């Protein structure tokens, strides 16, 4: 069988491979602590469920408008405008079946073969996959450890710029590091974008999934809303990972083209689910706050447990549901210097299943520190404490 050449450029989410391995290990009778996958084990708020159920009963089961139902586009535009300090209308919003479709459609709309895209590494692996699949050249930039958070490595970013650079991907608040860009970082990035005439994919999947302070957006910088497309998803804030509802938010010229891709791809997002999204945005937020409160407890338990391990250091992120501890000393001390050897040894010795830095892109040339990612979205506080206690024994043995 002859397979299209482009398929060789398509990557995957390697975290799912870790999940499969952990499932096999559990099926053999072992106790597994699932820190590997960023899925939520918390219930979708009843406001969302009731809104979708009412829509089902009202017969909202056929095709929806390609760009999304006007009610959802309007309330989403108003909500994001208020939180970002910009002026979006429904014409700036096109609904997607999840947050992820925005990534590929952004590149399909704006990227020509041979053009370069700056993307974060470590970062969500679908960026690199979709850049390459769409004929672009993925060019990574990294992060460095600051005093209390990871920071964009502007030296690597500036070095990576060339006359072929067309687009920039910014994941803020970031998977896997939990990094939150400061206003100063946004200002510096905006200056780079203006000087090099770039457009930006602003992945804000975790914008509302925060535990203290207030999120700020890159699109709030002067002139950046006109150059940026926001990836918005209902998956995190509303615990709707399996519902598949999100949106692309940006300049009308780009949004209209993404809607055109919708026609050629899935036609439209699920009709009745969109009414659930409306209900979630305009309804009572008590259950939404409850999700964040529970995740905050889990974050605190994970950070405390990891920082209690000799040779491990872990920042306390203000958002997302990931921690990204530095395990350089532990890997060196145990002699398990290979990421996969270390990960599998920990799984088989303790049942603790996590992903490593290499599940989020290849290590950069000047990278020396070692990191792993613990997701706490699908595991309760008691199990977090039990699992990390076993991991501590493993690391210190």
Strand order of the largest sheet: 2-10-9-8-7-3-4
E-strand count: 14
Distance between the termini: 51 Å
Write the CATH architecture name of the largest domain.
3-Layer(aba) Sandwich
- Structural class label: alpha/beta
Helix content: 40-55%
Number of distinct helices? 13
The low-confidence runs, each spanning 5 or more residues with pLDDT under 50, are none
Taken from the alpha-carbon principal axes, the silhouette is: globular
**What is the N-to-C succession of helices and strands?**
HEHHEHEHEEEHEHEEEHHHEHHEEEH
CATH superfamily caption of the largest domain: Type I PLP-dependent aspartate aminotransferase-like (Major domain)
Number of separate domains? 2
The major β-sheet equals:
7 strands, mixed
In the CATH hierarchy, what is the class of the largest domain? Alpha Beta
Strand content: 5-15%
Mean pLDDT: 95
Task: Please state the CA-atom Rg, rounded to the nearest Å.
Answer: 21 Å
What's the CATH topology label of the largest domain? Aspartate Aminotransferase, domain 2
Explain what you see:
This protein has helices spanning 15-27, 46-57, 70-84, 101-110, 125-133, 154-160, 183-196, 252-264, 271-282, 286-307, 328-334, 339-350, 381-396, and strands spanning 33-34, 93-96, 116-120, 137-141, 143-145, 150-152, 165-171, 199-203, 228-233, 246-249, 322-323, 352-353, 355-356, 372-375. It has 13 helices and 14 strands. The model has no long low-confidence stretch (mean pLDDT 95). With 397 residues, the chain is α/β, with parallel strands linked by helices. Strand 3, helix 5 and strand 4 (137-141) form a beta-alpha-beta unit. The strands form four sheets. The protein has a seven-stranded mixed β-sheet, with helices on both faces. The protein has two domains: 5-43 and 287-396, Alpha-Beta Complex (Aspartate Aminotransferase, domain 1); 62-282, Type I PLP-dependent aspartate aminotransferase-like (Major domain) (Aspartate Aminotransferase, domain 2, 3-Layer(aba) Sandwich). It is globular.
């Amino acid at each position: 069988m002859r397979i299209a050449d482009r398929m060789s450029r398509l990557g995957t989410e390697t975290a799912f491979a870790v999940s499969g391995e952990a499932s096999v290990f559990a099926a053999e009778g072992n106790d597994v602590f699932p820190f590997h996958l960023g899925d939520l084990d918390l219930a979708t708020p009843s406001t969302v469920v009731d809104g979708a159920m009412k829509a089902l009963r009202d017969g909202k089961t056929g095709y929806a408008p390609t760009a999304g139902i006007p009610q959802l586009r309007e309330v989403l535009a108003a909500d994001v405008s208020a939180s970002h300090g910009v002026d979006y209308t429904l014409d700036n919003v096109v609904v997607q079946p999840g947050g992820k479709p925005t990534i590929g459609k952004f590149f399909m709309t704006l990227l020509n073969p041979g053009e370069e895209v700056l993307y974060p590494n470590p970062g969500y692996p679908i960026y690199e996959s979709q850049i390459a699949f769409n004929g672009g050249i993925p060019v990574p930039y990294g992060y460095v450890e600051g005093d209390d958070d990871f920071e964009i490595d502007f030296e690597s970013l500036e070095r990576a710029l060339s006359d072929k650079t067309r687009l920039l991907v910014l994941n803020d608040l970031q998977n896997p590091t939990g990094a939150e860009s400061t206003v100063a970082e946004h200002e510096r990035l905006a200056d780079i974008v203006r000087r090099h005439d770039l457009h930006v994919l602003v992945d804000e999947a975790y914008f509302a999934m925060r535990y203290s302070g207030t999120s700020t957006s890159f699109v709030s910088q002067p002139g950046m809303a006109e150059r940026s497309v926001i990836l918005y998803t209902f998956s995190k804030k509303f615990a709707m990972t399996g519902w598949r509802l999100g949106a692309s938010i940006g300049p009308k010229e780009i949004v209209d083209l993404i809607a055109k891709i919708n026609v050629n791809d899935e036609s439209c997002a699920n009709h009745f689910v969109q009414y659930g999204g409306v209900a979630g945005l305009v309804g009572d937020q008590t259950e939404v706050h409850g999700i964040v409160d529970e995740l905050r407890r889990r974050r605190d338990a994970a950070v405390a447990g990891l920082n209690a391990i000799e040779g491990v250091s872990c920042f306390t992120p203000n958002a997302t549901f990931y921690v990204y501890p530095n395990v350089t000393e532990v890997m060196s001390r145990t002699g398990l210097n290979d990421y996969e050897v270390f990960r599998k040894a920990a799984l088989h010795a303790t049942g603790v299943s996590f992903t490593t830095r290499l599940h989020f892109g290849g290590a950069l040339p000047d990278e020396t520190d070692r990191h792993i990612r613990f997701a706490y979205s699908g595991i309760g506080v008691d199990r977090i404490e039990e699992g990390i206690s076993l991991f501590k024994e493993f690391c210190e043995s």
